[in-house]
Amino acid sequence: MASWAADDIHKFTVQRIGRVPVIKGDFQSLPKQVKNFITHCVHLMAPRGIYLADGSKKEADEFIQKLVEKGTLTKLTAYKENYLCRTDPNDTARVESKTFTVTMNQYDAVPHVKKGVKGILGHWMSYEEAAAAMNQRFPNCMTGRMMYVIPFSMGPVDSPFSKIGIQVTDSAYVLLSMRVMTRVSLQLFELLHERSFVKCIHSVGCPRPVHGRIKNHWPCNPEQVIVAHYPEQRLIQSFGSGYGGNSLLGKKCFALRIAGAMAKDEGWMAEHMLIMSVTTPQKKEFFIVAAFPSACGKTNMAMLNPTLPGYKVQCIGDDIAWMRFDHDGKLLAINPENGFFGVAPGTNTKTNPIAMRCFQENSIFTNVAETSEGKYYWEGLEDETPENVEIRNWLGHVWKRGQSKSRASHPNSRFTAPAKQCPIMHPRWDCPKGVPISAILFGGRRPKGVPLVLEARSWSHGVMLGACVKSETTAAAEFKGKAIMHDPMAMRPFLGYNFGQYLQHWLSLEQPGRQMPKIFHVNWFRRGDDGKFLWPGFGENIRVVDWILRRCENDDSIVMESPVGFLPRPGTLNMDGLPPINEAELFSLPKQYWLDDIKQNRKFLEEQVGVDTPPVILKLLKNQEEAFKQC
Ligand code: GTP
Ligand code: SPV
Ligand code: MN
């Protein structure tokens, strides 16, 4: 058991930076650039000790024990090594309004927004403003706390696509989560004699002695939250929050925002996409990626349990894809992550039996409810939880099913589970080379107007469809209510550079000799007039995938033209064994709805992307409008 009482520190340490002892790890042997980074962080944040994490199970066990003793984690006794974490109720999701990109030139970070309009495709800050904001927060912010140094790889360590990061943090919860979500290893330090790394600085912003009360043993500083990205410096600074994408800096900050900027420079793609393998009854394997906004079904689709006989699905990744074309013109994808940080509510043995099997051990559940049997509980588990158990909600209060008006779990409560525990993980999920992609899907939660599936006419038409992705707002960020929001390419919160340039980058990827994947738009969330979903979703989505794969094999007999692209010809979607589905309604294209939608999209692009919008996107939108007017 690691012990950090002041007396012990002297017993164990020989190395120090200034007066700050290195309580674990060999600082002296580190590459110079790493030493410089750590020294900078120590001088800036003044922790009471430095701890070089090695990513081992032993280390994780020690931290778990420590966090259980403190009360940050509670063991869920019904399982082997599963833990519940309740956060401060003011720190439960990403904070998009406090997330910034810092660049020399504003328009490298964000598009030319129309005068008087508030930009929603990223927030820019100048270096001066950022320095002022950081100087208010970071100096001495780790006083009295340990600084953990976490060397991690995004992607398999031996993959030429992978990138290394070092995160410093004063949160042991973050350290435990990073070990699940990324590949943490001391071996990475050795590679850094030759290679560069992304610098990730994180603090919960709660130096000791703490002013005010810490809630749930979860130190944080919600009023002072800031998450700043410096793509030009390959640097991330995050302050005040310990939750998810705000604090696990390998994920959205690095693997999407910083990697996105790298990808543009180097000619590849960093996308908010799941990666899945589908083997057909004819034993042909395809790989597809799908970009859906947060809480719109990526994890579910990545682990889809097919209801059509003879189909097999295997998972490669559930949230992020890094992709590049190889010399033969094939688009290859890797999953840079090592685990799942999945939405808990809604997950059950009917909707996602595979996910349920991922987190029966070695997992952390954040802001879910707990039963008197020592099990997790959330909305969706009603049928799998005996009536007579007592439930404590995510806030730790007694909660009565059918009586309590509030929710049992937070809507953005999550499970953190190692990818290797997924029973359908693809044998090559961590293959350094990546898997070849045949189709790209876009989608969102669209209660009205948008058909179950449609196919883009071309690569550029697909980019236009992606640019027009919208979805109901979700609990994964600070939004309340259910407005429909633009979330182009499912990347609105995760863009690392000017969105117009991002669209241009996508367009420029189409080159002679490349096998461009087909692009589709799907919508599992259309509702009828009674408010109910028109499509059963989940495992039944294999029927849509089946149609998509037949299109990837160029079966032209199953499509028909429409103003929005190719639609399935009636009767070509396999509906065998389903209760009656209102196909006409599921695929209808209400003319006025679409004319309004196109108008909104044009307004969105004009206001939000302005002169940065690639002209071809506007032209394709115009064509779509004309096609609707004529039908
Ligand atoms: P992030 O981790 O935030 O990026 O979310 P995600 O895109 O991985 O979403 P996830 O798969 O976790 O699904 C979010 C919610 O949507 C869960 O409550 C699911 O139960 C629900 N959901 C997923 N797929 C479907 C579907 O096909 N139909 C319906 N009706 N709901 C779905
Ligand atoms: C998302 O919001 O898309 C997530 C959760 O996957 S977080 O890691 O918090 O970004
Ligand atoms: Mn996500």
What does this structure look like?
- The structure is a single chain.
- With 631 residues, the protein is α/β, with parallel strands linked by helices.
- Helix 12 (459-467) packs across helix 17.
- It is globular, with a radius of gyration of 24 Å.
- The N and C termini lie far apart (72 Å).
- Residues 272, 294, 319 line the site of manganese (II) ion (MN).
- One of its GO terms (cellular component) is cytosol.
Provide tags for this entry.
631 residues; alpha/beta; Phosphoenolpyruvate Carboxykinase, domain 1; Phosphoenolpyruvate Carboxykinase, domain 3; Phosphoenolpyruvate Carboxykinase, domain 2; eleven-stranded mixed β-sheet; six-stranded mixed β-sheet; 17 helices; 34 strands; 26% helix; 23% strand; binds guanosine-5'-triphosphate; binds sulfopyruvate; binds manganese (II) ion
**What structural category arises from helix and sheet content?**
alpha/beta
Radius of gyration over C-alpha positions, nearest whole angstrom: 24 Å
Number of E-state strands:
34
Name of the level-1 CATH class of the largest domain: Alpha Beta
The span between the termini is 72 Å
Portion of residues in beta strands equals 15-25%
Put simply, the count of helices is 17
Which CATH architecture of the largest domain? Alpha-Beta Complex
Globally, the shape reads globular
* Approximate helicity band: 25-40%
CATH topology of the largest domain: Phosphoenolpyruvate Carboxykinase, domain 3
Overall pLDDT score: 96
Each distinct ligand:
guanosine-5'-triphosphate, sulfopyruvate, manganese (II) ion
Sheet of most strands: 11 strands, mixed
Number of domains: 3
Uncertain runs: none
